[in-house]
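notes to self, project folder thing:

trying the whole complex as one job this time. last attempt i did each chain seperately and stitching them together was a nightmare. two parts in total, labels are on each line so i dont mix them up again. if this works i'll redo the older ones the same way
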Amino acid sequence: MTELARKICLLGDFAVGKTSLVSRFVRNTFSEKYLTTVGVKVDSRALTLADGRALKLVVWDLAGKSELDSMNRSYIRGASGLMLVADGTREASLRAALYLWMQTQKQLPGVPVVMLVNKLDLVDRWEVSAADLERLQQSLPTFRTSAMSGEGVAEAFALIGERVAGVAP
Amino acid sequence: MSRPDAVSSSLSAYLVERARPLVASFDRDGLILAVDGEGAHYGLGADAEAALAGLADELLTGLPRTEPQFWPLIEFGQRAISAWWVPDDGGGHLVLADTHDGGRELRERQQAANELALAGVEKSRTIRELKKARAELEARTKALDEAQRFQRRLVDTLSHDLRTPLTSIMGYAGLLEPYLKDSTPLKRALGAIQRNAMYLKSLAENLLEMAGDAHGELVLSPRQFDLAALAVEIEDMIRPMTEGKGLALTIAAQSGVDRLPCFDDIKLRQILVNLLSNAVRYTRQGRISAELQYDGQRLSMVVADTGIGIAPEYQQRVFEPLNRGAQQGKDGAGLGLWIVRQLVQRMGGEISLQSVPGVGTRIAVSLPEAPAESPLERAAIAEEAPPVHLANRRVLVVDDDPDICQLLLWSLRETGYEPEALPDADEAVEHVRSDAPGMVIVDVELGTRSGLALTQELRLAGYKGTIVVFSGAVDTRIRQSAHRAGADAFLPKPLDLKRMLEWLRSQLPQGS
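result (full assembly):
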């Protein structure tokens, strides 16, 4: 009961790879098969923070939506941070992620946010350009990730962990 | 109206039975007090209490335990559940309820909808990529077309520019021939000039053929022709080459039927000239022979030599383009036999080669007879040198090349005509109007205007005499265009002066 625990929520359009990112982060596994999430999946993993403390990161993987509906609003209550997830091969999913973020701002003002642009393994099919990423990077920490290879995943979760624990600004 | 107790009780029993609730009760310190329900239904085993305590911690992270909470749909193990937190006396109860088919149906619908949307995204992407690929392909095709047109123009120009001087070289060499005695150095020099001019001529033909083949423009124009006359003509062309090297040459033609064979005789000439030129090139001593045999269905042509032969490992390579070196020696551009094979294949025939190094080579070609063209088509392609009726001996030569003009003037005078030459089309129209010559000989490639336009203009002006056009372009289209413009005869460059003079001599008006 006394351990440090923080809830974060993954938001993004459908099929951008949120569940796969959580699987990679929590269990270090990956499945090619696409299975949609209904409602929410809750998982957790312990992290060691830069200051040596342990943090239990409780990860809420919300069903992919391009808009925040009432069900998802109920799930994000109590979240200390947000991970926005987009699919690099679908430029529209980046806009959806930013739109979802905008919709959370009233309910979760000022919570730490990181952006994950996923499917780096399919970079030759990316619609999201380097210029888009550069612009994003100026607004919020942005990671190019691959749930398939694991690239960028641990770094993104580590940063959100540091931020929600108040270690990193 | 309030619900009767019995109804509420019954309804409650039904919902409880369906929801299979699992209730975990916690004290104010978060320690589990009791579990009520079937843990196994939710995939929980012996450590159900620890799992439920962990779940409660995860669900309530960031939320006050003193307030009720509700989570309508959570994926929990293999099940979709609803969950509540019910605060109670500082602690509370975590209630899990099975959503049964509701969760599964929702998942299936959502999965189908998402997959459909993904398919739509993929389809749009594919269409975009296809459009992009098509645009790229169109751009490349356009560039390729331009490159091909340029190549075609280049080859046409080169071919024409080779043919025109060759007409002068071969023509003047032919005119000199009767004045030189055999076995003199000058006669041998003339032979060398003729042989090399002949080589250049076949090279120009092959280049044009190659360009035509690359553009898929090889059109066959079969027509009836005299096989024996073809043999004589080929022999006349090749003999200066063999005489210069002291080789014996025999060309024999034989027909087993009464009627004339029907083939594209221009292509036949090209095949034979290439085969024989090749034979001459690689034969140092001995003889060269060609046998042409027509049996009413097929034409076989066998060219044999006593030359250096071809090693077995090179025998297929000689039919490849630019195959210099396949045979010993470096003469030739390596196009001749490749062109021959292309032509034979296009004509639906077969070609075979037998060769023994140091003994000689024998190449056999067998061609199926082509169906005759329609009468209309046939009429459009008149004989190159048909009989004509000349009103007088006056001939006007229209050519902007002074060497060709001089050659034709000389030849025509030798034959008994009264020629004049003009370099310009406009002057020619005036001259024809005032002088009314019996024949006008026009180069298609005049400097300022097309010789075909001049031909057309003369006909429209009412000129009834004979018009002969000659051109460096020798394909079927130019021949057809010449006849459509009003020409009576078409002669290809380089001009075969000997044949031309024979024809002119035979057409000479008597008593004029």
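what i see at first glance: Residues 381-507 of chain B form a domain with the Rossmann fold fold (CATH 3.40.50.2300).
need to look closer tmrw
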